[in-house]
Amino acid sequence: MIHVFATPVLALRGVSKRFGAVQALTDVDLEIHAGEVVALVGDNGAGKSTLVKTISGVHPIDEGAIEWEGNEVRIQRPNDAQDLGVATVYQDLALCDNLDVVANLFLGSELKSLSVLDEIAMEKRAKELLDTLSIRIPSVRIPVAALSGGQRQVVAIARALIGDPKIVILDEPTAALGVEQTAQVLDLVERLRERGHGVILISHNMADVRAVADKVAVLRLGRNNGVFNVADTSHEEIIAAITGATDNAVTRRQARTATKEDAK
Amino acid sequence: MSDLTKTPAPDAEQSAAPIPAVDPRLLVREEGLKGYWTEFTRKVRGGELGSLPVFIGLIVIAIVFQSQNSNFLSASSVANIAVYTSGLGIMAVGIVFVLILGEIDLSVGSVAGVGAAVWAVLNVSNGMNDWLAVAIAVLSGLALGLLHGFFFAKIGVPAFVVTLAGFLGWSGLQIWLMGQEGSINAPTGSVVEHLTGYYFEDKAAAYGLALVAVLAYAASLLLDSKRRKAAALPARPVSEIVLRAGFVAVLCFVVAYVLNEPAGARGLPLALVLFLAVLVVADFVARRTTFGRQVFAVGGNAEAARRAGINVDRVRILVFGLSGLLAAFGGLFVASLSGGATKSLGGGNTLMLVIAAAVIGGTSLFGGRGKVWSALLGMIVIQSIQQGLNMLGMASEIQYMITGAVLLAAVVIDSVSRRTQKTAGRA
Ligand SMILES: Nc1ncnc2c1ncn2[C@@H]1O[C@H](COP(=O)(O)OP(=O)(O)OP(=O)(O)O)[C@@H](O)[C@H]1O
Ligand SMILES: [Mg+2]
Fold first, then answer.
1. Of all atoms in ligand 1, which is nearest to the CA of residue A20?
2. Is the reported ipTM for this assembly greater than 0.90?
């Protein structure tokens, strides 16, 4: 395992975010070190995507602080996050349907020669990148609208690897992928870690999480519900944190499922 | 982080060979001319009509009017179409950008009127230097456009409302500027008079321009193909380049010939040169610069563009600014054609013709798709129809109805091709 630095690359301190009447995040803490894969898990609506969007500048935070390499920073716009070195793959993929694959990959960071778009360099680089993710795309020059769901997802993932991000955030990157492509994405996550990038991986698939993550941070109803080392935590403990086994209601529910299982 | 792109050796358990570079299901164009034809029919069936309806339309128009009146394709008639195309065509270039952005600008006619009025008041009434007055007129168009963009992007007022307010407000400003007189004539020999009144009588001008255009086009295609081959990317075969360059060459030299040779020919109109210059620059901006890419991105998916770090507000404001600038510039051409600025310049059906030109030329009303050259194609269609109907002595009410029908046809083609593209997975 790569040496983990003392100061985290990215740290959230007491972050809160409201959407009108919904308190999506309350007092959330999170730390990501270089060369570390942190899985962010939680039930539907727990606030994972919202947390990601506060880091990437889509929704600025209401309260709390974001620290980058130990210094407090303000992330108000997607640009701020990109300048710091945060690359994000959103759950709602955020691609431009009318642009072709190459244009989408390099959107916001186009390659230029003499301030003219260098289509050839971009196309070449795009091909290399997509080959890494072993996806077959009919042509890198067709509009993204013509791609399948999984192909679109791979394009979105490849987008995050353009440039040289320090933190890569993947919000359910494998949700639409086949076996082969899922394995490639997990490989990619490991390669990112080996090269000293920090990775935040959101996934509902515990097998994937346990396969690649170093730590698991659990969100429940917009609050922290524990951070676990994958190596010395059992599957059940994580599930308990996600579903909130400490809650009364959940304990009752567990009892119910237990009796059901007994009955089987 | 280029190392990331090095794929690790495929897992041993994988029986499949390494992924082939191309999807075997991808339809590849066959060699030779037959290949072009099959690809062409496939594209048309998939709704990718491109400029096809316009070219067919132009041919039909030419045949119909020429059969009714043998002067339709005469030198003076073609020159007339070229000159009348330029003013509104330049305005249509601005509209193309606005449409790609997925918005609409209803104020172009009024902004053109204000531009002409500003020029007339400064240059004619107050004796300001020609060039300075023209520059200020064009810049005032830019300012008005930026103002529309600001209200749209920053305040969030829908673009059609902002520009509708502009449409009313600026035509008020125009009438106020023109004051008592109501019309100010362009002095003979002034810059604005030359805009549409000047012809390069030397035959070398038209032929030279045609030659330069063809050579530049062929060279850019060849260079691109060479660089793509060097980068091991699929490139256009030489046969296709020859075909394309040949088509452009025939087109350019036929037009140059008609402008130069027949009896009554006056040579290459300056207005056409300026319009072509605007088209070339605008096309370059749209396809080859970051700004152009951003306009398409915002038109396709504004939220995705924002998340990619694009300053969406800035793009929107600039596009409306560009539309205002080109509207005012086009307004000076209109003033030049009608002999000067008037209270009603840019009123009437100007706005409709400009938007119709962009749409007829193949720019989508639904945003995200369009070509700068559609301003030229669409405007030629409209002006040819008007010219032809004029020559047949058709009343203007009939002209309105026919132009309206053509616009409707263009929008129907746009909507239908969009639907076909959706079902063919191309929208
Ligand atoms: N733009 C928004 N406006 C209003 N409420 C929102 C918005 N985005 C998210 N929310 C609310 O915030 C809460 C957290 O949503 P979020 O998308 O972060 O969940 P999640 O953990 O990513 O869930 P999932 O696993 O289903 O993706 C939900 O209650 C949701 O309704
Ligand atoms: Mg989510």
1. 4
2. no
